[in-house]
Model the fold of this input.
Amino acid sequence: MPKSERSIPFENNDLETILATSLETFNKLGWSVQFANEHKLLGFTTKSWGTKGQQIIATASNNELNIESEMVNGESFDIAGKNKKNVNTFLDAYLDIEKNVSQETLKNNIEKIIELRLQSEEAIKKEQEEFAEIDKAMNLSTSNLYVTYAIIAINVLIFILMAINGAGLFEANSVIHLKWGSNFGPLTTSGDWWRLLTSTFLHFGIIHLLMNMYCLYMVGVYLEPMLGKVKYTIAYLCSGLLASLVSLWWHSSNPTNSAGASGAIFGMYGLFLALLTTKLIPQKVRDAQLKSIGLFVIYNLAFGMKGGVDNSAHIGGLVSGFAIGYLFAIMIKAEKNGKKLNWVLPFIIIGTLSISFAYLNQHQTSLIERDKILAELKQSDFKDNDKFNERYNEVIEKQKL
Done:
């Protein structure tokens, strides 16, 4: 975060006097002070329509006063030089106040600082207790994100290999995606059942990939530590597979070439939503995350209604993840009470595979139609995207008849 600092020397003033004068400076400037310890005062500048306010730290030692101004609201640059202005403003006001401040004011400020230190200690203690409660429930400090990183790495690696193969960085080449395993109804339902899963690792362009991987990381930070690697992996794969199945069903009368990790990712958000509606997660995290994830889901589903987005996969992933989340909630609650529910994970896996098998068995595409599509793919020039798209659309029209 952008910051600036500057120090001024002292020879005779003791720490308490420097801090008391600093507190008076904060008050004169109209800046708030929220934290104090033996050597520091921490506060913030005034917020306005043009600024979110900057963090100000006054640090006293026996021979100097150091003032630091830092932007802590996600800013990347300090183009207007606000930090430097804050530091200079503070020190100029400090030097002026130092000459005129009364001993009574200093005494009152020292008492206020002592009170603020006690409040700060209580606040720190409360935060530590809340973090301990959150950590106990979600294992945030004792786990890692190896599975999340592995999923991201696999998606990125496949994207790079597909790009080398001619899939395109920004505009996708449909035939390459079909070759690599995208979810296309006539092929998936005529023997290529594996497309239900492989399609969740393919992406139509780098923007599609980056957005999905960012969303996965943001939810994985919470879920992988809390669930553990086995439950997390099973939830991701099963919700992704079911999302692909819903997409297949939704587009059964109008086949579409579908791919992307968003169905599985929506499954993880659905799972998180389910857990957030229970008391397994402390309320401080629960309330904030419910709002955040709720807005994420609503916005993305609304955005998907504009077209060009497979919303059916999003909804399928969300619903399946939500159901898996409640099964996990039962399992986690039992584990916390010293019981083992060994049936839950096999139930989820067998249930997912059974539903998939039943649908594919009842909605089979004839081998004649499959052979026509494969013949078109075999004859297509992978580098001639327009030519293939024309043939691809002809195949789609035939499927409608």
In short: Residues 382-386 have pLDDT under 50 and may be disordered. Residues 9 and 64 are 4 Å apart (CA to CA). The chain is about 65% helix and 10% strand.
